[in-house]
Design brief:
Four copies of one chain form a homotetramer. With 315 residues, chain A is α/β, with parallel strands linked by helices. The first copy, chain A, has helices at 5-15, 17-21, 28-31, 50-57, 136-139, 165-168, 182-192, 216-221, 228-236, 262-270, 282-286, and strands at 65-67, 84-93, 100-109, 117-119, 124-126, 140-141, 144-145, 156-164, 179-180, 201-205, 225-226, 241-244, 274-277, 291-296, 306-308, 312-314.
Chain lengths: 315, 315, 315, 315
């Protein structure tokens, strides 16, 4: 019996689609110490240097600043039970002839994991092991982590690059079940005539942010994003962070129903690369501004797993 | 002519510096609309423009980034009953073969008014009137302000200038009861050979941050800072913001015991100029770096009175 | 022309149902001081005395205790944005050879106004005036009320009486738009052969609690309860408190669309009678136990507007 | 050689004071299942029955009610980082002609473990094992415990008995390092002419509450209370709960420096007996009312480790 090559490929592919997708976390010995050395807590944040700052500075030509974050409010989409709550402490009228009233507010919520948000390495584990094989029991306390907290990050400034997959696939937004592949990323970069460099802030556009605030249920239910293969390809480009305009950067749920957000483990725990979720990229995409100075200031909250942020593109 | 002692004392008292210090909030008609027009909510934030960004960019020469904020933790100094609390939500082990554990935390506190902090115009009133004569009853809700919230600010990037009063007065820190005067500021600027420009981020060094985390009680009790005259002089320089390495920017308590933090009213309510408190300026001062690109990203919390921040100097 | 009486009544009733319902808050001078005297903060709580305790004690015959509250959890119905949140502070392992682990939890929510809840007099106003004409500006602070707080209440023990309107109207639950009238209450009392006495805890059964936890949206949307006329009739009975197995004790929304929960004002502000909401009365109703010792222990939270509670019937 | 008895006793006592005190948690097999059977979650709460209610009812003669709890406020003593915070949500003015203003408050704190407080069995562990050998990993979630939560308790009503050790030892308060022994308890009971019965609520008076609110630091630092021997003796009396007017019921710190609050383990984990801390017993002691109906209503918070409470004595 003779089979053409294309038929053979079809049979092989169809026979085991889950196998193709499937992924297992690597053994600790295969991932630790990280490329940044035993005990390192900064991971991809180590790329931050005078070189990345000056490279980014060179991209500022017109002085335009574009906000890449959503406004924080209690009407934004929330993952699971997370929340953001403001309770106004209305006017305390101070003693004094100058009638000085002072307002403030209690804020309550998962401030590390809401809104446009930056993930630190204490956020995700493989079993009881985190980035660089720190052990959960060794670093977790009732009130934060003694290692891998977001206070280790500080301001990051580097070249930012948008990979506009929604544009190159001519679908804005991408379908909820669209797994972004390495081929998608490469096609978009070709189209945009951009070459990635080590230490970039790579921001992937899916177009999904159109549902932020307009259809929060849809925004959070299932969303397009990078899959395992794309995450591994991106990790090899050695960026400073990987962001997207969707809830999880990665496709959710994963096409392999046995896996729960594996890209979070691949990037945070295995490779020590920060994630940046719920970006707003529409303005830059409309202007076809794909390269710019990227600046982000995660709050320096001791022992926290991440930070809500308000990053910008400057060009 | 002969004067009795009691008459002499009376004359000296009447002529004296406390009278000179004393200040009354101006009538609404004398301060509204602001220079930025009726209904304006951005005040000094209106200085933010391509021009200030490019001017700041031109100051980035070596790619050095210096953090100007303190780390947020429950052991930092707090004003009054304010607090910052992290409660770890330890490992939720997700279903899936990839054993993905997820950590996050509840954060609770006055996130607009703790740590290194940026004041929006909803923070302070003169009676029931705020910046640009917005009325408290018109804009206050149980969960934020409908006008003048910190979400109106966004990233600010401009030339940053340190005025090192501690250095020029040869007292680091300045004494707790040292009221910084216009003469102090001018002397420091002369010594540093710096001229202020409209739209600058002016950062005043008192040296007081040495007690942050080392003697929190002393840090918060009484502290040196600008007085009424200096605030009025600085307001005339028309900056984008005024910051300091002390709890209130201004001297606290005010030398006039009848006044409660009048500089807060002069800058926020009367002139619409943002304040930035609890900075960390020691590294820049030690290096005598007095001019740099200043970048700050207040959280965009809808209706909040301010934001804890993590600004940087870049040069 | 001749009309039968019933037709005449129908015409009169139909011609102006809203007018009949409509109510205006009385002037301050018509309601203050309260029957308990100027400056009184305890209102109907003043009924609590050895007499009410002994009367209740006399009703304890079998030693049976019936819980009248719902369990507090984040899956219960909430009014508006109220919430109840438990964040476990998992195991702090204390030093010592005895391996003592300690668990506790942060609780966050409107603990005065969730679950089965008891209303204090600081909860509701008529304009800026509260029970006994205390003024809001005089007693409200950022962190509680200096008068009328729930800490003034303490344990209440008195005769409890159920008025089972659902049973007498043969509709369990009553329709969502059923306004309970004085006639409804009187019919039920007759049927049950019960006479109200001063100082009773009057608990009205609508049957609405069947939707608690089974259809939370329905539970909170619109619900049957007493109207203005019934509230005024009940107030004249001079009870220690009035409770019900619905969200607001009163019908919600009020049949008069111009009124917002007027019974809250009639009972709390005008008459100084405590309210008790979200009761669970099914077990007592099924057993036809209409009279019992009623015991409630509001938390003594300084300056709070109410307390979540776990009252019981004992008989 | 002959020794008098007193010298012999001295030698025995002096030879090993720590051994005498020292205690090791029993093996799981020695303490599980509890006397209430495998899987039981109610422990000493199982004593609650018609019998205890009627016995208590019989003690109500004058109708007097005495509050045994402290008022909850942010100025009370707190253990460690625990807190109680009220943030007023001032007046929401509802739409409607009746000008109904509504006040409520956010409450934030360890509501299971502050103020006068009742301990459930999820509060304390021996290693990773709790009462009746429930395992921590099996029952702990991010938001409460699936077993042994305080919602299993409900109202308790039983005979309350005060053991006034402070009176019998003629020291009110007892010295901070006074370990209450079985002999102390027995002497007080003899003096008071009281015999303990199964199912009693045993309340031990140390007099320590005099420092509550007057010297909070002293109140919390070191305090008198029952030791290991007294706890074991009391457990054999098989009460419904054991309370005291001090922070921990037990002496703190334990005289054996190697042990951390062992009585918590002995009563909660080993014997399944509830604890009740920070009581206010002065009024009853002054009146020498040693026997009464005791009523407590722990909040029914799903999965919580305890509840702040407002119990009373009725007699």
């Amino acid at each position: 019996m003779r089979l053409s090559l294309s038929i053979l490929v079809f049979i092989l592919a169809a026979s085991n689609p889950v196998e193709a997708q499937s992924w297992q976390p690597p053994a600790d010995t295969d991932r630790c110490p990280s490329q940044w050395g035993a005990g390192d807590q900064r991971g991809s944040g180590n790329h931050m240097s005078a070189r990345t700052v000056l490279r980014a500075t060179g991209l500022i030509r017109t002085g335009t600043v574009v906000e890449l974050s959503h406004v924080l409010s209690d009407t934004m989409p929330f993952f699971g039970t997370r929340k953001f709550e403001i309770t106004t402490k209305r006017t305390f009228m101070n003693p004094g002839t100058n009638r000085r009233g002072s307002n403030e507010e209690m804020i309550h919520g998962e401030m590390g994991q809401i809104g446009t948000q930056f993930d630190a390495f204490s956020h995700q584990t493989i079993g009881d092991s985190l980035y660089n094989c720190f052990r959960l029991d060794d670093i977790a306390t009732r009130s934060g982590f003694t290692k891998l907290g977001v206070e280790n990050v500080g301001t990051l400034m580097t070249r930012g690059v948008i990979i506009d997959v929604a544009a190159v696939r001519n679908a804005s937004p991408l379908a909820a079940n669209h797994e972004i592949t390495p081929a998608d990323l490469q096609a978009a970069l070709r189209e945009q005539n951009i070459t990635l460099e080590k230490g970039d802030a790579i921001l992937i556009r899916t177009g999904w942010s159109r549902y932020w605030g307009t259809d929060n249920t849809r925004y959070g239910n299932a969303s397009p994003g990078i899959g395992v293969a794309a995450a591994q390809w991106l990790a090899r480009q050695d960026p400073m962070l990987i962001g997207a305009d969707n809830p999880s950067v990665e496709i959710s749920p994963n096409p392999d129903p046995k896996l729960s957000l594996p890209v979070h483990q691949i990037l945070l725990a295995v490779n020590g690369i920060h994630l940046l979720e719920n970006l707003k990229l529409e303005e830059l995409a409309a202007k076809k501004v794909y390269e710019f100075a990227f600046v982000i200031q995660p709050l320096r909250m001791k022992g926290a797993t991440g930070s809500t942020v308000a990053p910008v593109a400057i060009y």
